[in-house]
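Researcher: Next entry: J domain-containing protein (Lotharella globosa).
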Amino acid sequence: MLLALTMWCLGGYCLHSNAEPQRQQQPPRPQQGKKLNAADLRKLGDEALGKGDRKMAINYYTKLIAVEPNNEVNYWKRASAHMRFRAASSAIHDLDKAIELDPTMMKAYLNRARLRKGFGDCRGSKQDYERVLELKPKKSGIKDKIDSLGTCVHLLDEVDKALRVGDCAAAKPSLDQALDIAAESVALRMKRADCAIKTGDYQVAMLDTRRILSSDKNNLDAIALRGQAYYGLGDTEIAVNHFKEGLRSDPGHKILKTLYRKVKKILKQIQTGDRSAEASQWVAASEAYAAAISLDNSHPVNVPHLHRKKCEVLVKGEEGSLAVDACAEALRHDPDNTELKCLMGDARLANEEYEEAVREFERAAQAEPQSRRIHEGLENAKRRLKMSKRKDYYKILGVKRNAGEKDIKRAFRKLALKLHPDKVPPEEREEAEKEFRKIGEAYEVLSDPEARGKYDRGEDVEVEGHHPFQRGGFPGGFPGFFQQGGTQFTFQFR
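Model: Predicted structure:
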């Protein structure tokens, strides 16, 4: 039989043993059928507590109290078990009973004073220490604690006065000072975190809730506050996850349920907008972002951020006036944002407001003269302004500047069908021929990647002026040509 090798380390020295590691000793269990007296139960409770088995210790002490309900020591022992594992409320309840049975039990007053202070009950804690001083007037350090708690009582009166009228800003200085005295108080820290949420000081709320949850990860009210802090900082998805996690512990928690439903709706719209943007569905994306804004139109982070996203997607989609309006709203929320100024310039270009686009980029350049993004945007705006004085081939075909080859071909085909000789009365044929020449010239340039590139860069482009149906036929099936005054022009359809 192989025996496990165990290393025992004591005082920095390690000894090897071939003995099997000892299993952790379990708290003793009473023998079956044996009726336990108070002494037995007290001993079993003490042994269980010594082994760290809080549940079993409390079980024995509870049975002990049933046997000896008027013995203050029994309540003290169960309170000690509760205190060992941070069940402060239960501990205070047992200490209350112990003091009721023995009003001179000093150690009960001392521990209750400490626990009350932890709950932010500075007045109750002060009273307990005053009672200790009555029992033992010369006990060291108690006078200082009473003085400190007196200050805390005054500060908390100021906090309560401010909070009664909803003035968290006025309450904060007193809360800060009270927490300097009662730093371990969860109740005071919760109050400060709640006020921090209401005043938009989300980082303070994050710090306070982290400290609370580090010692009590199941504090659902703290989880709710922390989720709100994340939401206030714009971390909407993390906030939803916090609310969801809390609801797993208590599906009926009203605050968590309300917050989860509200923020989940907002997150859903943001995610819908992001997916639409990824699919180049620019207007749909902007509508989803607008819906998210409408669900909480006073959010200090999300509202400016979502207005910017609206501006970005509509600029990408070259949605002209929609882009201009969206970018103007985004700039209203963040007037010094250089990138937004550039996006507004791009929006002006999409809306064919070339001179205004130049001015937008010039204003941006005043703020950041070394910005490459601004320099390139300004040069592009000037080039587009120059080009606007020439024929606008995109406008002639009725397509956007980011139109693909298929879009250009489709637009040309539609216009060419409209100008077919069979559809034009004789008296309108001359005007139709002029229009047809325009669409033919536009298609010749925009269907040729090289020519289109030159045109987009503002370079001169040579146009041959061919009839569009001379080679390759017409995509739709009729042969066609216009012949006016004996002059035939041809155009190759690509």
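Model: Note for the record: Residues 306-388 form a domain with the Serine Threonine Protein Phosphatase 5, Tetratricopeptide repeat fold (CATH 1.25.40.10).
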